[in-house]
Amino acid sequence: MSEKVAIILAAGISSRMKTDTPKVLHEVCGKPMLAYVLDACRGAGVKKMYVVVGFGAERVQKRFEADTDIVWVRQEQQKGTAHAVLCCKGQLNGFDGQSLVLCGDGPLIRAETLRKIIEKHEAEKASATIATAILDEPKGYGRVCRGADGNITAIVEHNDCTSEQLEIKEINPSYYVFDNKILFESAAKVEPNNAKKEYYLTDAISIIIAGGHKVTAIAALQPEEAMSVNTNEQLGQVSRIMEGRHQESAKKDFKEKAGKRCH
User: Fold this and answer.
1) Res 243: pLDDT
2) Does the domain at residues 4-127+173-236 carry the CATH identifier 3.90.550.10?
3) Domain spans of the chain?
4) pTM of this structure
5) How far apart are CA 56 and CA 44, in angstroms?
6) Strands 48-53, 176-179: parallel, antiparallel or unpaired by DSSP?
7) Active-site annotation holds for 16
């Protein structure tokens, strides 16, 4: 089993939330969003997290200063997800294991889901593995395009989709596992040929496929796990889902303790 690290993209500005608080520090049930992503990585066996920060970097680092398994990486300019990954190249240039790539504004991801993605990646001996979800309302998400054989051909961001691609329900919530060397080789080749003129990590997937490497996908995510937070409304939705999880966990713990007392 290969050694694993995580690259967590957490440099975003919470402009639509109308606040100067870094997005990943907004709280869900009393904890910053980023804390849930870090805990999911730890639960999946990741020992080191490379967190890419930009806006409000000092505040984010201060909040997690007690966490000794985090390496902080600065993205001084927001040029897209592939650019954010490349900011970690200096730290991970010689690493020969697996790199998970996640976003810090997706607090509903579960450790067991990450373990499924890793297991799929290793079983398939893939160069890259994508976790997907099926959504009834996929607006805003990148679409997963597949060929007649069912294999992935590309991931297309919402703003770049054709009318036909917009009908696709399988989406990319941005949870990946890569062989680290192939990740950085492909990310370095990405060009900003899209509506936003940004360097998209999704384009690295197409580059990996074109290079003859295996890319696999697993529909491992529940729809709620695909939710990211960009607005106060979404923050409220995620908080309600998380509260429900906490209540279910408390009920389960109570039943287990009651069962033990009965024996």
Assistant:
1) 95
2) yes
3) 4-127+173-236
4) 0.91
5) 28
6) unpaired
7) yes
